[in-house]
């Protein structure tokens, strides 16, 4: 277990932003993780968890407390059952399941971050969400001081949400268990139209696993959503805002604003999101409100490849990033009456 003091946190995040931590500890076993958490809790020391750093916005002043990097390793495959340690690199784990001929998470290729973060956000992309394959999450419960196993229903999964996100200070994810599918080397049925089009098939079709994975990686790369240290469009947290889910009344008011601004022939994206609710596209809202690809003149700008990504062009501060985010939120609200919600976790700052 490594321990540093007054340690920079920016290199541990995909934004490459944020000030130092009073204390930085890197834990490589579950026992070390639990020991550090217990020590911090017993001393009343603030605790910040860091996995892949792909979903963190840390303030320029840094973090006054203990920052814990979870660097545990473990990839265990038993038939179609997979168990991942929280510190496993997610995109590497996806590649290994594809190599093993197992379907269920192949369309989640290229997503940065660690395996332990996936249930917290109920990570999803290109028609798949981890909640559809997760069977259990093993976590340390800071409230009871016990290690617990939570089943899928107990995790409270919904769109980009979970029990862990709802109560962020209670659980420390240690391991995640999945049930995958042996479909004779084929993918799960494709649910995302863009993926199906790129593969020349119809939604619902299956394709070879590696073809599905490679296609998703190409689509993500084209949007700056695969990490590349030479490409500032990837110095981001990926999608900075979640897609809004609106009630019927809210959607009707939004639709009226769309007609007023863009004309009667323009229909906003609309997807069923449960009874009485409709999901629309944050990227569409941002673009139509006037914040197009590459928007901005300062060191923090919208990606040149995707309107949903806010990026550090190399010299940005966290305050630069937040100023841009606030401008986008205010602009979308003024034009369409919809308030965007940030997807990354903010530390020491807020929108």
Topology:
Blueprint: E1 2-8, E2 20-27, H1 30-43, E3 47-50, E4 56-58, E5 63-70, E6 75-78, E7 81-85, H2 90-99, E8 102-103, H3 118-121, E9 124-125, E10 128-129, E11 134-141, E12 146-151, H4 152-155, H5 163-166, E13 171-179, E14 181-182, H6 193-199, H7 209-222, E15 245-247, H8 248-262, E16 271-272, E17 277-279, H9 282-288, E18 300-302, E19 310-312, H10 318-336, E20 345-347
Polypeptide structure, described:
With 351 residues, this protein is of the alpha+beta class. Helices cover 28% and strands 25% of the residues. The two termini are 34 Å apart. The model has no long low-confidence stretch (mean pLDDT 97).
List keywords for this structure.
351 residues; 10 helices; alpha+beta; 28% helix; 20 strands
Q: Main sheet, how many strands, which sense, barrel?
A: 5 strands, antiparallel
Q: Report how far the terminal alpha carbons are from each other.
A: 34 Å
Shape: globular
Oligomeric state of the chains present here:
single chain
Radius of gyration: 20 Å
Strand order of the largest sheet: 6-7-13-11-12
Helix content: 25-40%
Low-confidence sequence ranges: none
Beta-strand residue fraction: 15-25%
Query: What would you call the structural class?
Result: alpha+beta
Q: What count of helical segments does DSSP give? A: 10
Number of strands: 20
What letter string, H or E per element, gives the SSE order?
EEHEEEEEHEHEEEEHHEEHHEHEEHEEHE
Mean pLDDT: 97
């Amino acid at each position: 277990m490594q321990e540093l003091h007054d340690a920079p946190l920016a290199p541990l995040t995909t934004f490459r932003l944020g000030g130092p931590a009073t204390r930085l500890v890197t834990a490589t076993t579950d026992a070390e993780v639990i020991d550090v958490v217990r020590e911090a809790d017993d001393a009343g020391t603030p605790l910040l968890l860091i996995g892949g750093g792909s979903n963190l916005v840390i303030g320029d002043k840094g973090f006054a407390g203990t920052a814990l990097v979870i660097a545990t390793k473990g990839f265990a495959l038993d038939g179609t059952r997979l168990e991942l340690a929280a510190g496993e690199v997610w995109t590497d784990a996806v590649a290994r399941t594809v190599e093993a001929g197992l379907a269920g998470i192949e369309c989640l290729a290229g997503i940065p971050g660690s395996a332990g973060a996936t249930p917290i956000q109920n990570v999803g992309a290109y028609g798949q969400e981890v909640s559809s394959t997760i069977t259990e999450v093993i976590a340390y419960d800071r409230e009871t001081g016990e290690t617990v196993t939570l089943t899928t229903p107990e995790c409270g999964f919904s769109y980009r949400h979970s029990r862990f996100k709802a109560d962020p200070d209670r659980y420390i994810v240690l391991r995640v268990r999945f049930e995958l599918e042996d479909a004779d080397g084929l993918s799960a049925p494709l649910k995302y139209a863009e993926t199906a089009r790129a593969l020349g098939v119809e939604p619902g079709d299956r394709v070879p696993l590696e073809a599905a994975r490679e296609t998703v990686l190409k689509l993500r790369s084209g949007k700056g959503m695969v990490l590349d240290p030479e490409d500032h469009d990837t110095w981001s947290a990926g999608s900075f805002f979640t897609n809004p889910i609106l009630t019927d009344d809210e959607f009707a008011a939004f639709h009226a604003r769309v007609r007023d601004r863009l004309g009667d022939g323009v229909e906003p994206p609309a997807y069923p999101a449960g009874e009485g609710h409709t999901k629309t596209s944050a990227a569409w809202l941002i673009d139509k409100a006037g914040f197009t690809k590459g928007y901005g003149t300062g060191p923090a700008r919208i990606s040149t490849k995707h309107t949903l990504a806010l990026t550090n062009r190399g010299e940005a501060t966290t305050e630069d990033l937040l100023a841009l985010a606030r401008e986008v939120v205010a602009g979308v609200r003024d034009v369409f009456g919809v308030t965007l919600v940030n997807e990354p976790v903010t530390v020491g700052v807020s929108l």
